Amino acid sequence: MNTQLVNIIFGMKVKQARLDTGMTLTEFASQSELSPSYVTEIEKGRKYPRSDKIMKIAEVLDKDYDDLVSIRLEPPLTHLGTALSSPVLGQFPFEEFGIEMSDIVGVLTRSPDKASALLHAVSEVGRQYDLQEHHFLWSALRSYQELHDNYFPELEDAAVDFAKKHGLDAEFPLSDETLQNLLEKKFSYIIDKERLENDPQLDRYRSVFIRGSKPRLLLNAKLHPSQLRFLLARELGYLALKLTDRANSTPPDQVDSFQQVLNDFRASYVASVLLMPRPQMLDDIQAFFDSNDWSQDALKVMLSKYRVSPENLMYRFSELIPQFFGLPIHYLRVHREGERYRLARQLNLNRLRVPNGLAADEHFCRHWLVVRLLTELEEKRKAGGETSIDEPVIGVQVSEYLDQKSWFLCFGFAREMPLEGFDSCGIIGFRIEPNLRNTIRFSADPEIPQVTINETCERCALTPAQCSLRAAPPTALERDGRRLARRKALQELKAELRR
Question: Which of 14, 66, 143, 240 is in Cβ range 3.0-4.6 Å of 162 for a Cys bridge?
Answer without folding.
Answer: 240
